[in-house]
Write a structure and sequence with these properties.
- There is one protein chain.
- The strands form four sheets. This protein has a five-stranded mixed beta sheet with strand order 8-10-11-13-12.
- It folds into three domains: about 5-165, Beta-Lactamase, CATH 3.30.450; about 215-305, Orthogonal Bundle (Helix Hairpins), CATH 1.10.287.130; about 305-460, Heat Shock Protein 90, CATH 3.30.565.10.
- It is of the alpha+beta class and about 450 residues long.
- The protein has eleven helices and 13 strands.
- The protein is about 55% helix and about 20% strand.
- β5 (about 125-135) and β6 form a beta hairpin.
- α1 (about 5-55) packs antiparallel against α5, α6 (about 220-270) runs antiparallel to α7 and α10 runs antiparallel to α11.
């Protein structure tokens, strides 16, 4: 069953937290039990040594008599704690023997300890062991003590209650932590999933054709903000492409409508006998058909250049020499408008397709002449760097409005929305320039001011 991103994120966080809590609780339990066992062994050792020291003080060296009343109290208290005492004088005569004094009770206590330890610590494999200690006063032996207890350690009911309480605390803290993590997971999942779900919703809107929708606001998470920014950029690009596509359709229709209408009108008039089919009228029809053919030819050229399998016949090209050649080709055309073309710069050799670069410079220079007023000036400059050759075509013509600069390299884009043929071509030339330069791995950009002129900078890697 497919889950939502939020559900999956919650389940993932809960799973991680659950495993973490379980591992922490398990390791803490093991560590605490191990340390508690060491602590109990140390306490046993201390208890036995304290008992031996205490009993050694119960011998009166002056009267040679043991304080049996006190010994009885200590021995009975020790018995209930699991320690069986056998006390001897210096001649190994029995002064006190807990097993003989309280045989049944002592036996019952020992049995309870064995059963309890075998039940709750079966892996311990413990047993009752005996340890003998010398009892001394003023470094003189006054007797000996044998203490028997369950080793290596044993736990009484109070000890087990302490451990059970500790385990209960772990359980309560773990459960509370799990519930807290569940609440935190819900908040975090909502925080992470909300922008993603919103982005998904916007993506569906874009897929449905609503290209102007955007993700507003920020998530305060760098990666998500980068995703949102990239998505908004993609939406803007799609919206721009859609607008250009619509404009392309309108522009192609406009470019075809005028010559087709003119040809249709002329032919219809001549067919119905309204006009005589004179050479002048036939020439007019021919010119309109030539306009259509020119548009189709330009579109074919652009399609050919933009193909993914465009093959470049790379050779060593001197950009300065190429600039002089192309500028020379435009001398007659520039002379008609009294426009001067000058070439300057340094020799720059690049590995490129000479014919394609010729086409790039030809299109740029043709545009510059079209949009430069009579008596204007055009400059072609060649620069050479370590990694690139740079071609710059600059004019002092009519310039390009700022709002049109991002779109001048789009196919069929014209800054003159009237599509007046007197102000330029059909808007294919710069699109071809961009495609050829991109095929070489270079870049082309434009800088322009209205009534000040334009500058096109082409960068070709060596």
């Amino acid at each position: 069953m497919r889950r939502t991103f939020r559900t999956q994120l919650i389940l993932t966080i809960i799973s991680v937290v659950f495993v973490a809590i379980a591992l922490i609780s398990l390791l803490a339990n093991i560590f605490i039990n191990r340390e508690f066992e060491k602590y109990m062994q140390e306490q046993q050792k201390i208890r036995v040594e304290e008992t031996a020291a205490m009993l050694s003080l119960q011998y009166n060296s002056l009267t040679k008599v043991w304080n049996l009343e006190y010994i009885h109290g200590v021995a009975m208290a020790a018995m209930h704690d699991g320690y069986i005492i056998r006390l001897f004088d210096i001649n190994d005569n029995v002064i006190w023997d807990t097993e003989e004094h309280s045989t049944a009770e002592c036996s019952q206590i020992m049995t309870d300890i064995i059963e309890r330890m075998e039940k709750k610590r079966p892996a311990l494999n413990g047993e009752f062991v005996s340890h003998e200690y010398e009892l001394k006063q003023n470094n003189q032996k006054v007797g000996s003590l044998v203490i028997q207890y369950y080793g290596p350690y044993f736990l009484n009911e109070s000890d087990y209650q302490f451990l059970n309480s500790l385990n209960l605390i772990f359980l309560v803290v773990g459960s509370f932590s799990f519930l807290l993590s569940l609440f935190a997971a819900g908040i975090l999942a909502k925080r992470f999933s909300k922008p993603i779900m919103k982005t998904s919703h916007i993506a569906k809107q874009i897929a449905g054709g609503n290209y102007n929708t955007r993700f507003l606001g920020r998530s305060k998470i760098r990666e998500l903000d980068e995703l949102i920014s990239a998505f908004n950029h993609m939406a803007a690009s799609l919206e721009n492409e859609e607008n250009l596509r619509k404009r392309l359709t309108d522009d192609v229709a406009h470019e075809l409508r005028t010559p087709l209408a003119a040809v249709s009108f002329h032919l219809e008039a001549m067919m119905e006998g309204v006009w005589e089919p004179t050479p002048h009228r036939l020439q007019s029809c021919y010119e309109e058909i030539e306009r259509i053919s020119g548009l189709v030819s330009d579109l074919e050229s652009l399609a050919k250049v933009e193909k993914d399998n465009l093959q470049l016949e790379r050779v060593h090209v001197d950009l300065l020499e190429l600039a002089h050649t192309v500028a020379g080709n435009f001398v007659p055309e520039s002379a008609k408008k009294d426009i001067s073309i000058s070439v300057e710069g340094k020799v720059s050799h690049v590995s490129a397709d000479k014919d394609r670069l010729n086409q790039v410079l030809t299109n740029l220079l043709s545009n510059a002449i079209k949009y430069t007023n009579e008596g204007g000036e055009i400059y072609i400059e060649v620069q050479d760097t370590e990694e690139y050759g740079v071609l710059t075509v600059r004019d002092n013509g009519i310039g390009i409005p700022n709002q049109d600069l991002p779109f001048v390299f789009e196919r069929l884009y014209r800054t003159d929305l009237s599509r007046n043929r007197l102000t330029g071509g059909v808007g294919i030339g710069l699109a071809i320039v961009k495609s050829i330069v991109a095929a070489h791995g270079g870049t082309v950009r434009v800088e322009s001011e209205v009534e000040q002129g334009s500058r096109f900078i082409v960068t070709i890697p060596k």
